[in-house]
Amino acid sequence: MTLSSQDFSLKNSASGANLCRHLTQASHAFPEQLAVAVQRASGSFFSTKTLSYQELNFAELNRQSDKLAYGLNAYGITRGMKAVLMVTPSLDFFTLTFALFKAGIVPILVDPGMGVKNLKQCFIESKPDAFIGIPKAHLARKLFGWGKESVKSLITVGGVSINGKSCWGGVTLAELQQHTSDEPYDMAWLEDDEMAAILFTSGSTGTPKGVVYSHKMFEAQITALRHDYDIEPGERDLATFPLFSLFGPALGMASIIPEMDASKPITANPDYLFAAIDKYQCTNMFVNPALIERLGQAGVSESHCHKLPSIKRVISAGAPATIASIKHFSHMLSEEVEVLNSYGATESLPLSKMASEALFDTTSVTDNGGGICVGHAIDGVDIAIIEIDEAPIHNWDNALRLPTGEIGEIVVKGAMVSRSYYQRNSATEQAKIADGDAVRHRMGDLGYLDSDGLLWMCGRKAHRVDASIHVDNQPQRYFSIPCERIFNTHPQVKRSALVGVVVKGDTVPLLCIELDSSLACSRGASLYADLNEIAQQHGQTKGISRFLIHPDFPVDIRHNAKIFREKLAVWAQHQHKE
C-alpha cells in the first residue's frame, strides 16, 4: 500500500490533536519501510573505527512506542505529568519520545550545552515529575541537584544494572518494558493549544526559557516542511538535530542519525556523515551553518571533491550561513540542488526561507550594510516590522507596522508561533502580542521588509548600540549585522562584533575585530587607518572610530556562529583606554 502526501496529511477522526497520528498512519501504510537508523562508531582510540547501524521500521517504531507508553503508565507516569528527557540520539530516544507524546506526558527537552547553572534553573522552573536519562545525565542530576524538589520517578536508559535494577534509583528502561501490553495504545488526544512539550531555548542569545509547544504547533511545522519544502513520504533525511529528527517519521521520512555530538556539531567527523548519506542514499539534509562549513571543508579539496548525488534538498537553520561556506559546500551537490536557508527560532520555526542561488545575488547589498536577506515568509506566516521599543505591547494593531524599508523589530504570526513561555510571565508579556484568538511573537531580532516582501535581518535588538554621539546633527543608532558585514569585507578581518562602551559617561560604538589566522595580518596603524576609512564610507558605520583586536571570539558551541557580544562588551570596556 502506498500513501501520497495528500493522504498522509489527513486528520484523524478523533477529536483533539497528537502528532503521533502520523506515525500510526505510516505504520499501517508502509509498515516495513525504514523509519529510523542510528549510526554507531566502535573501536579503540588508536584504531580505525568501525561503523554499524541500528534500524527500526515504521511498524516496529509504532509498536515499541506503544509498549513504552503502557510501561510509563504502569510506573505511574501519566497524562499531564512532565518528564525531563536527557537521552542521546538513539533508537531509545525515538521510542521514548513518541511514547511520551502518545501518553500525553509532557517531555522537557534541554540543550546540555547551555551549562550546569542554566540547566538547574530550567529544572527548577519546569518542575518535572520524572527524569529519564542516560547514566551520565543521572550522575549530573545527583551531583548538581537537578529536579530534586519535584522529581518522583526515575528511569535509566542504558548503562549497567544490578540484578536488573538501576544503579541510579527508580527503574531501567528494560524493567519498564516488562510492564506492557501487546494491544495498540489508545493515544491521548490533546486540545489544539494544550501543552504537549517544553523546549528550552539554548541561551545563546539570553537566559534559556521554556517554550510551551502544543500539537497544533507541531502540526504546523510538519505542514510547512511537507508543503513549503516539498518533503514526501519515502525520503531519507540525514538528521543532525534531535528535534528535527522526530519530524522524519511524522512525515513518512526515515531519520538517519549519524554518530556525532548534536550539541557540538563542529566536532563531527565528516567521514561518518558522508558514510551515512551514501549507505542510505539520503535525499534530505538538515544542518546548521557550523556543519555546512565543516562538511564543505572536508568534502572539497584541490585534489578531490566528495559528491552527494542522492541529496536533493539541504535545509540550514540556527544562524545565518556565510555565502562563502554555502558555495564551498554546494560543490558536493548536484547542479540543480540548492541550500535552503530557514529563518526562525525555538519559539517559531520555520518562518521564511531563502534558496542559495537567490542569496548569492544579495551579496553586494549585504556587504554594503543592507543586512542579511532571509527570504519570503512561508505560506501561512505574516511578518511585520514595528518600532524598536522595550515596553510590552498587549494588543496588536496594524497601525504598529512600519513602512517598507524601515528597520524595526520583527514580529511574526502563524500556526507554528508559540503562545507563551513556561513559568515566565514577564518574558511572555515582553515577547507576545494578543491578536484576536492568535498570538504574535516579537522575535527580538531587528530587520526590514523590502518592496518585494523579502525580509532582511539586521541583528538582535539587544545588540544595537544607541550612541550618545551625533552624526550630521542626528543621534546615531548602530545595528550589529549591517555594521559588521561592512567591516568584514576587509581582507584581513575574519569577523567583527559591534559593542557599546562608555567613555566619560557617553555610550560610543566600538568594533571588536578577529583577524584571519590564515593570513599574515598587520596589526599596526595601516589596519586601523583602513578600518577608519571603511567606517566613513557608509552611513551605517559613520562615527565608528574605535577598534580592538580580539584573539578568538566567544561563540555558542552549537552553531559556532552566534557571537557572545555581551562577553565581548565587558572585555572591550575593560580593555579600552581613552
Automatic annotation (TrEMBL):
Origin superkingdom: Bacteria
Any Pfam family matching the protein: AMP-binding
Gene3D superfamilies reported for this sequence: N-terminal domain of ligase-like (3.40.50.12780)
InterPro entries listed in its UniProt record: AMP-binding_CS (IPR020845), AMP-dep_synth/lig_dom (IPR000873), ANL_N_sf (IPR042099), ATP-dep_AMP-bd_enzyme (IPR050237), OlefBLtnSynShew (IPR054910)
Limits of the AMP-dependent synthetase/ligase domain: 52-422
NCBIfam families reported in the protein's UniProt record: OlefBLtnSynShew, PRK09274.1
Protein name per UniProt: AMP-binding protein
Species assigned in the record: Shewanella hanedai (Alteromonas hanedai)
